[in-house]
């Protein structure tokens, strides 16, 4: 079946990204993997490539293209090469929607040019130790000063992707106590400057996968946040977070599909080269059947991911549809990558092979952005159950 989601511009961009990856990422990726993060100056190279400004209006230095399809191309190309762009993905996928939706004209003039140039990398700090998916249970507080010029931020966050290199972090904090009839009330969002006194980056977390993506613990001790850095209205943050979950979950779904597609490619290449009992592994019926089954699942996941992408670009992707796409694509990727690793035999367990890294990287897809179980709850509720 011919895909219709991409046009000539997207394919030209694909060629550019593929060449960039081969020149700037593949030769040094093992070093990044060992270091546990991509170097900060790499993000300036991404900025020069133009990837941070695709959806940013032209008046702020961007291309002004209101589409996620170029991001989708990057998901496919990084997966295809068995690499990642470090923690930079959250900069666009998580940071930009909040600026677009909530920032005032004055804030956009301050934030967006530096966002596009890579001078200020953004991250989102929502999760706290002990709260997990229960966002309304957060304990971090932001109290308005007596003179009304700033908020005083105190608390801690964990699992913050991009947290080591971030220059601005959208921090979710309680500005008011929850109401008896609405525990979600009282949360506000702040664009916090990471150079602020009292702001500190704790451990860079040692993860099972996504080794090149810096993930950190953050702590705030009497951090003064100017009132000019409040995003949106006070106490309405929970609603803002929910509004952007659909795009985040689409990103996870599309990334998972791209990983599954790459896994089939890696396995196909491996079994064609590897010989056992005097025959190529690809010649065995079991190998053919396994890869054929994996390809069928990838085809289905591609259709779901593409449909969600079209809906997202049209502004029509519902929370339930995003949850369904995330659930389906991440579960498919889990099955496909596992089967493709099996076809590698013992070499599939070695980190020098991209399938091993892919296996570890993929596991979190069914956890972050809402677990598979949470996705099922959202879908069931939309069904009237």
Automatic annotation (TrEMBL):
Residues covered by the Acyl-CoA oxidase/dehydrogenase middle domain: 123-223
One of the record's GO molecular function terms: acyl-CoA dehydrogenase activity
Pfam families assigned: Acyl-CoA_dh_1, Acyl-CoA_dh_M, Acyl-CoA_dh_N
Residue span(s) of domain Acyl-CoA dehydrogenase/oxidase C-terminal: 235-383
Alphabetical UniProt keywords: Branched-chain amino acid catabolism, FAD, Flavoprotein, Oxidoreductase
Co-factor requirement: FAD
Keyword Oxidoreductase: yes
InterPro entries referenced in this protein's UniProt entry, alphabetically: Acyl-CoA_DH_CS (IPR006089), Acyl-CoA_Oxase/DH_mid-dom (IPR006091), Acyl-CoA_Oxase/DH_mid-dom_sf (IPR046373), AcylCo_DH-like_C (IPR036250), AcylCo_DH/oxidase_C (IPR009075), AcylCoA_DH/ox_N (IPR013786), AcylCoA_DH/ox_N_sf (IPR037069), AcylCoA_DH/oxidase_NM_dom_sf (IPR009100)
UniProt keyword Lipid metabolism present: no
Listed GO biological process terms: branched-chain amino acid catabolic process
Domain Acyl-CoA dehydrogenase/oxidase N-terminal intervals: 7-119
Protein family: Belongs to the acyl-CoA dehydrogenase family.
Name this polypeptide is given: Acyl-CoA dehydrogenase
Organism: Streptomyces alboflavus
Lineage, uppermost ranks: Bacteria, Bacillati, Actinomycetota, Actinomycetes, Kitasatosporales
């Amino acid at each position: 079946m011919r895909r219709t989601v991409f046009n000539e511009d997207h394919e030209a961009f694909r060629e550019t990204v593929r060449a960039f990856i081969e020149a700037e990422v593949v030769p040094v990726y093992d070093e990044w993997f060992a270091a546990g993060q991509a170097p900060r100056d790499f993000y300036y190279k991404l900025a020069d490539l133009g990837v941070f400004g695709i959806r940013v209006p032209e008046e702020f230095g961007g291309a002004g293209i209101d589409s996620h399809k170029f991001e989708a191309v990057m998901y496919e190309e990084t997966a295809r090469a068995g690499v990642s762009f470090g923690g930079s993905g959250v900069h666009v996928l998580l940071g930009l929607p909040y600026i677009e939706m909530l920032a005032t004209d004055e804030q956009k003039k301050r934030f967006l040019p530096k966002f596009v140039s890579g001078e200020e990398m953004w991250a989102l700090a929502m999760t706290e130790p002990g709260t997990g998916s229960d966002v309304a249970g957060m304990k971090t507080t932001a109290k308005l000063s007596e003179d009304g010029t700033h908020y005083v931020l105190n608390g801690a966050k964990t699992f913050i992707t991009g947290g080591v290199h971030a220059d601005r972090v959208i921090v979710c904090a309680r500005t008011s106590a929850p109401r008896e009839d609405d525990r979600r009330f009282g949360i506000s969002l702040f664009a916090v400057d990471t150079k602020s006194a009292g702001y500190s980056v704790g451990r860079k977390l040692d993860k099972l996968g996504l080794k090149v993506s810096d993930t950190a613990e953050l702590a705030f001790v009497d951090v003064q946040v100017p009132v000019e850095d409040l995003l949106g209205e006070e106490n309405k943050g929970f609603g803002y977070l929910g509004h952007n979950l659909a795009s985040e979950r689409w990103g996870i779904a599309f990334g998972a599909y791209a990983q599954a597609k790459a896994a089939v490619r890696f396995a196909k290449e491996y079994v064609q080269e590897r010989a056992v009992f005097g025959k190529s592994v690809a010649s065995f019926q079991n190998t053919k059947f396994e890869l054929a089954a994996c390809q069928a699942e990838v085809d289905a996941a591609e259709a779901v991911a593409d449909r969600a992408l079209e809906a997202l670009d049209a502004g029509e992707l519902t929370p339930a549809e995003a949850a369904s796409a995330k659930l389906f694509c991440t579960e498919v990727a889990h099955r496909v990558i596992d089967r493709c690793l099996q076809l590698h035999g013992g070499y599939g367990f070695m980190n020098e092979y991209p399938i091993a890294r892919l296996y570890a990287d993929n596991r979190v897809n069914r956890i972050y952005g809402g677990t598979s179980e949470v996705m099922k709850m959202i879908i069931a509720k939309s069904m009237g159950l």
